Amino acid sequence: MDEQLAKTGFFYRLRYLVTPFFRSERKRAAWLLTIVNIVLTLLVVAANYAIVVWNGRFYNAMQKYDVNQLWFLGFIFFAIVAVITVISTVQQYTIQKLQIEWRGWFTNYLLGRWMHNQVHYRMQIDATKVDNPDQRISDDVDFFAGQSVNLPISALQSVVTIASFGFMLWVLSEKLRMFGVYIPGMLVWFNLIYAVGGTYLLVRIGRPLFYLNNIQQRAVGDFRFELIRVRDNSETIATAHSGAAESTRLSTRFAPVVEIFYRRIRRTVLVNLFSFSYTGASGILPFLLVLPSYLAKRVLIGTVSQTFGAFNQTQSAFAFIINNFSTLGSGYLSITEWRAVIDRLYTLEVSLRHHEQEITAPEIVYRAGTTSALVIDGLTLALPDHRVLLNDLNLDVPPGERLLVSGPTGSGKSTLIRAIAGIWPFGAGTVQTPGGRVLFIPQRPYLPNGALIQSLMFPYDEPLDRALVGDTLTSVGLGRLTAKLETVEPWDRELSPGEQQRIAFARCVLLRPDVIILDEATSALDEDYEALMYRTLTMALPHATIISVGHRSTIVKYHTRRLRLLGDGGWRDEVIAPAPEAVG
Ligand SMILES: Nc1ncnc2c1ncn2[C@@H]1O[C@H](COP(=O)(O)OP(=O)(O)OP(=O)(O)O)[C@@H](O)[C@H]1O
Predict the structure, then answer these.
(1) Among 238, 241, 268, 488, which residue's beta carbon has the most beta carbons within 10 A?
(2) If we measure between CA atoms, which residue out of 187, 459, 445, 475 comes closest to residue 309?
(3) What is the whole-number distance in angstroms between the Cα of residue 233 and the centre of ligand 1?
(4) Is the CB of 408 under 6 A from ligand 1?
(5) Whose CA is nearest to atom 26 of ligand 1?
(6) ipTM attached to this prediction
(7) Residue 233 has pLDDT above 50, yes or no
(8) Does the Cβ of 125 fall within 6 Å of ligand 1?
(9) Is 70 exceeded by the pLDDT of residue 5?
(10) What is the CA radius of gyration of the chain?
(11) Strand-pair partners of 427
(12) More confident residue, 342 or 422
């Protein structure tokens, strides 16, 4: 992945990010809006051209006291202004329309790929982590779509302005003399040298802003991530009375944001010093160039005014980049931010592609079984850094078996569960994952935001019989919640960890899976409740396959077989004679 990142340049990355939208199912809208925007941009330049020509004619007519011509030009002026108003308004609308079309499509495109085949999970556990993918998908896509429309349109407008007004300046230069000498295209050359020289200097002064922007956005993302962690763990922090320590830690995390911002400000001061003096000087220069010819009565005042207008137009076009340097948060910074955003989105793209390819050529081969049996053949589990956790596991778990996976902490039990769920990518061998309905219950079950009944249905969205739901809640000791099934609360904060674990068992009973995978699913319960949960489960679902992970010796009796992970990559498969009262 790193090699792929290293060998690509800016334009390659830009093309890589832009192309999919113009080939997508929204390509008609994309192309149509782009063409309309190009045409409108050309019309805007044409209208500006007309205004400058009008200006020259108007001042000449004033100097000659030509009343008829002045009336005529007055009428023309209103016509041009009316046309400019309509074109500019429509252009603003179509630019924004293209931006939101692009943003909408791109967001859904990335979201779909991120969520598909657990790619989001693979990206998280991978050694080559992409930081803050959420920020990339929300903020970066917004900025990318906005600037990828704005900047090329502004660039096009600048180029066409330079070409058309450059031609005008060339024609105007024919009447000018500098110290009595005729220089063909004098105004054009002067303009060119002034603009290119200025742009070059400004690009050099502003270059570090690109890097500073990039690291600033990363620092902001990291800080926000820490804040979210505090919010999620607010109770633990409160009970530990560690608010002050957390606050210091958060401030330390925030410090780089301020430090980088200062570096940005210092650099922007330099950029602004140059930019403002440059723009200021360009206000008087065209007059100085035309003045000798005007005083020698070679040209009329209208020519002076027209030269000034044309000079200004080409200057601002040439200075497209320069003007963009001048203010904090816009202009040049938007170009550098755009580049930074392109880099970040490209890295995200490469990572997505890397994981999508990994799925098509996996290290561990997953096959979906047609029965609820689990068949593991020569499975080696490794970590992202290739450290081996478990070696050459062969295991056949027939339907209805109750398997306990045990072993010292860190021996790879949870990782094996991930492999059984078909989401662990590193290692070798084959896993035939159980077919039918499989329900996974982790130590901290996920309770989605919403009504309690939704937590009982998760991850399926099927109607449940309310009487049965009431009975089931009662059977796990949560009968009092029957009245609150439709209540919307942050249930993961409202209920204690033990209650949440019991909700997960109730969910299991209600959804009637063929295979139940329990990863430390009773860790927050006392022995009585633990016994109640296993008994409820085995009585309600006597034919279900159960695969449990747990440390406590008390759960051994609810199982018929034990897989011991030895911690050194080795394993042992043992039969357990279940206690009679444990069998459902
Ligand atoms: N995404 C990952 N990246 C790097 N190392 C990982 C990753 N996931 C797990 N590990 C490491 O793999 C080892 C096994 O982890 P696992 O959670 O499977 O152990 P476990 O047997 O379930 O432990 P416990 O009993 O403490 O829950 C640990 O050393 C852990 O740090």
Answers:
(1) 268
(2) 187
(3) 21
(4) no
(5) 409
(6) 0.96
(7) yes
(8) yes
(9) no
(10) 35
(11) 381
(12) 342
